[in-house]
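*Target chain*
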Amino acid sequence: MEFFHKSVLLHECIDGLNIKSNGIYVDGTAGGAGHSLEIAKRLGMDGKLVALDRDPDAVETASQRLSGYNAAVVRSNFDEMAQVLHKLGLNKADGILLDLGVSSHQLDEGSRGFSYHADAPLDMRMSQEGLSAKDIVNNYSKDELIKILFEYGEEKFARRIADNIVLEREIKPIETTMQLAEIVKNSVPAKVRREKNPCKKTFQAVRIAVNGELDHLSAGLDAAFDVLNPGGRLAVITFHSLEDRMVKQKFARWCKGCDCPPDFPQCVCGKKPSAKLITRKPIEASEEELSVNNRSRSAKLRILERI
């Protein structure tokens, strides 16, 4: 089994983590181990990499590619990193990376059901366990579907798409990616279909719902910051506005400190900033990277350092 994934913003992430050879580092989304391998190469005998992923395919591949390095590969979601570190006898980390994108392997492997470009079972489970996209599309109420499409996909045709999903599933179950893609295409104006593939937002929304991505992200960011050593850095790559907004707001809160009302003449809460921004604005892919990896187009990298 070959787990292919071209790591996004690889050099920017490695530079941003400011890796120490004797440090403890966590790659919370190991995937094909692209970022993990570059971190591991920079660690000495006293350093340690902990690579996490909830996808069993990714865990298998990362274990193979990190063999021979001072690294531990664990099947786990990144919001459980504190427990994983504790079990390994490690309590703190000097750097943490979260790459929130769906891997190339997950998109390109037909049986995983993430892509609207190929016909496959409607699945989308990163962990390959639990609730699937098929379950959501066929069993959620129309109002629940509208909420998912509007909130997670920012889809302005959410109501029309949900209406047509309900109509179609009354005739026969919606079981494949192409069935869902056709429903979406038939639910939007012809002008929208001509301009771009209209399925992206719906598939994103359903995938987020299937995997509980935003809940895991909120908890995962808090977990990462809690285990970060002073001077340690947290680097997060996002791929859509919902993720980026959450990361930006969390970073801003940790870097702010004082939370007194703005009309107070002076601070009375005494809270000090617990972090500083390394990137004032998100780092985006260079033209050179875009020329070889179009999937990096929407990537944004934000980095902070605990103080």
